[in-house]
């Protein structure tokens, strides 16, 4: 029987990508189980989505710890207990330390709402819109300890039309994200990326 890949998702906000991943895993019957949601706020929508889907939640409040390393140690401990094979970042608005990344080498994936290396950071959609580029898009990449700078796995362009508003661009980007992330997850599973 095919081994089920055990993944954690880390998110900070609305969780629309988390929901899209869960829906696709179920619909396409991927041999994947999301065994943990890690969240860094205790009042965000993604927590409700996880509860509805019966995905256990681990909440880490960074300010309760002396530094990032100590907070991350708690996460690493939880993920070790969960026996995960890899991590999907889905709107996790923090940089991971080298110690964290080293624990899951080439097994942490991120989605970014711009065509990297353009417009890294927290405001990829706004930054591309305000710059006035005519094409932006979505990037999926491996995570290293830089800001959105790991090896690129996939990209999909999104045109910015003259009559696009920031809101309409956001909607277009999210629509692309919700299709691309699950498809790339499926490809990575097929390629055995999360197998040790
Ligand atoms: C997504 O657009 C994702 O690409 C972005 O956060 C949003 C999360 O939305 N990530 C980054 O900007 C990472 N630098 P969601 O919570 O609805 O999935």
Could you characterize what this model shows?
The protein has a single domain, classed as 3-Layer(aba) Sandwich (Rossmann fold), CATH 3.40.50.170. Helices cover 38% and strands 22% of the residues. Helix 1 (16-27) packs across helix 6. It is globular, with a radius of gyration of 16 Å. It contains six helices and seven strands. The protein has a seven-stranded mixed beta sheet, with helices on both faces. The model has no long low-confidence stretch (mean pLDDT 96). The protein is an alpha/beta fold and 196 residues long. The two termini are 18 Å apart. The chain binds glycinamide ribonucleotide (GAR). Glycinamide ribonucleotide binds next to helix 1 and strand 5.
Strand content: 15-25%
The portion of residues assigned to helices is 25-40%
CATH class type: Alpha Beta
Structural class by secondary-structure content: alpha/beta
Kindly report the CATH topology.
Answer: Rossmann fold
* Ligand kinds: glycinamide ribonucleotide
CATH homology superfamily name = Formyl transferase, N-terminal domain
CATH architecture: 3-Layer(aba) Sandwich
> Are there runs of 5+ residues with pLDDT below 50, and where?
none
End-to-end span in angstroms?
18 Å
Query: What is the overall number of helices?
Result: 6
